[in-house]
């Protein structure tokens, strides 16, 4: 069980926190959270994974604080570069509602850099704080808590979990249209929308680690697959990538290459799949201009919003269940959070659920409304891959029946 210890000075937040916790419990978004009054000056957020001390600027303690939220601004004369420098020096500082030209910024430290999101309207400050604390208590990472909080600040209904894209902020990235307006310098260049996938071919999406598996799957009439070779120094890497691409072309299938976007461009791949960390280093314009499709991995609200800004061919949502095929920096999302992510994206982009999904889990994942289900071990560790593919395809053909029940 998680706890949220709230000092008396912030008691006005309770009117929003309690219905938000009830909403989260109804959605089954995580461990049950107990709200506890506190005589301390700071807020203590205790979850199964960590304990965080949180303070707001005007009520900060002399005790060490994990996050210090600065959300009170008396002047509109703000030097953004100085604020960013402050955040780089102190990773515990989180800036909320910073006034800039045309709106407001939330800013935070991430892996030696400053990230941000932008909202035209500031919204209700009490609602923003309440959702921020609730999200942290539910073990959402800071960046997810911040975008959820800004979305809830726009709400006119108490305790309703944000689901509409229009309520959420825009992510500050190369494709953010107001970069120059707010004075944010970005090294990367904006990129046009990527070519679409054939959604009818996207339903079953095996991810495999060898060209031999790609060949077998295409022979089994699988129409979309991904070659994911983890070792960039693997012998014969380029040859395998080129062969997988050629096999996909011969089968009129959608073969994606994970990570190796230069080789994918060179050999004319159908598409590439990139992680979040790749978005800052890969030449997205070169990928787009080569007419390659782009899939992007995401692990929560912030990364979904960031991926949407780049207009990819599809968005991967994961990892849904614990997985042993890849080291994951995030916690398993679970199908209840997956359903809300799908609501956020809607029909704007095709979606692929990935991570620890086997045949027994496909029905509940499929019912969330995702466009596709990615599997790894469900096929590669099966003694009869052909039967596994047949069973998975059969399961994925039953969505309409499941929705009718």
Automatic annotation (TrEMBL):
<keyword id="KW-0460">Magnesium</keyword>
<comment type="similarity">
    <text>Belongs to the thiamine-phosphate synthase family.</text>
</comment>
<comment type="pathway">
    <text>Cofactor biosynthesis; thiamine diphosphate biosynthesis; thiamine phosphate from 4-amino-2-methyl-5-diphosphomethylpyrimidine and 4-methyl-5-(2-phosphoethyl)-thiazole: step 1/1.</text>
</comment>
<keyword id="KW-0479">Metal-binding</keyword>
<dbReference type="InterPro" id="IPR036206">
    <property type="entry name" value="ThiamineP_synth_sf"/>
</dbReference>
<dbReference type="InterPro" id="IPR034291">
    <property type="entry name" value="TMP_synthase"/>
</dbReference>
<dbReference type="InterPro" id="IPR022998">
    <property type="entry name" value="ThiamineP_synth_TenI"/>
</dbReference>
<feature type="domain" description="Thiamine phosphate synthase/TenI">
    <location>
        <begin position="209"/>
        <end position="379"/>
    </location>
</feature>
<keyword id="KW-0784">Thiamine biosynthesis</keyword>
<dbReference type="Pfam" id="PF02581">
    <property type="entry name" value="TMP-TENI"/>
</dbReference>
<protein>
    <recommendedName>
        <fullName>Thiamine-phosphate synthase</fullName>
        <ecNumber>2.5.1.3</ecNumber>
    </recommendedName>
</protein>
<keyword id="KW-0808">Transferase</keyword>
<dbReference type="InterPro" id="IPR013785">
    <property type="entry name" value="Aldolase_TIM"/>
</dbReference>
